[in-house]
Amino acid sequence: MQKKTILTGLQPSGALHLGNYFGSILPNLELSQKHEKSIIFLADLHALNSIQDKKKLKEYTLDLATSLLACGLNPEHTLMFKQSDVPAHSELSWILSTITPMGLLERSHAYKDKKAKGQEATAGLFGYPILMASDILLYSPDLVPVGKDQKQHVEITRDLANKFNHIYGGSTLKAPEPVISEEVGVVPGIDGAKMSKSYNNTIPLFGTPKEIQKRVMQIVTDSKGVNDIKDPNTCNIFALAKLFLSEEECKQLAKKYTTGTIGYGDAKKLLFSAIEKYMTPFWEKYTELKNNPQYVLDILEKSANTANSIANRHIEKIKKRVGLLS
Description:
This protein is about 55% helix and about 5% strand. The protein is mostly helical. The chain has two domains: about 210 residues, HUPs (Rossmann fold, 3-Layer(aba) Sandwich), CATH 3.40.50.620; about 80 residues, Tyrosyl-Transfer RNA Synthetase, CATH 1.10.240.10. The longest helix has 30 residues.
């Protein structure tokens, strides 16, 4: 089977948590290893829609790059760069905006959802799908892994690619295919709702062991005692434990639940122990990288140089096609 090019973007929006890792980072890293070319860009231009603090944006962006490397991203295989370091993203965004119908943007689920939640309806938020389309189309990837909530944006990208080619002729822009993993379930937070910074229910990915243990011990449970029979399928602790335990270990824990031989306090201790065992190599790598930020910055710069070479060649073809270059 012919290997393909895969591209994804991740927003630097603050400290990462376990939901980010299992819901996005791990699936993307696993998918990138299966394909010949892999591109992951740090969407700092998109982040401006929600972060208007230059110190935080810079801090979050470097931390996201550090975290990805600590989690196993191989910079020899995957290009990882800041979106803002490749000016062609913004340039193509303007070109595409001139052919984008307003109705297409007005139907964007993300725009409507964020507006409904009280986020200011800025032009940047409204035009988010156009910039996202530019992020993708500049590199002509075959596949774009996204969550279900982002599928519409890839469909918009395909619409804009096809419309551009229809207007200006040729096949300058390649319409990609979305990849939506049905296997990735919702990672519950300590209150049982989806783990999210906006809900303040997260367990940090790179907090100190003490911080993580404290959050684990705060997981909400029912009032059943140690000797009461419990349903593992409705327990937040068990739902998280399944992410870290082997199949056999899960069976053993489930048996303790259904035979009333474990209390929630001990289950939380078991969960923390499993998290610590799984995450310790990542924590150690993260600490090493945090102590050497220049190494991370050098990787971002090197990847940006390569990304600019690809993007500039493509934007030149696009500008010739629309008449901006002869």
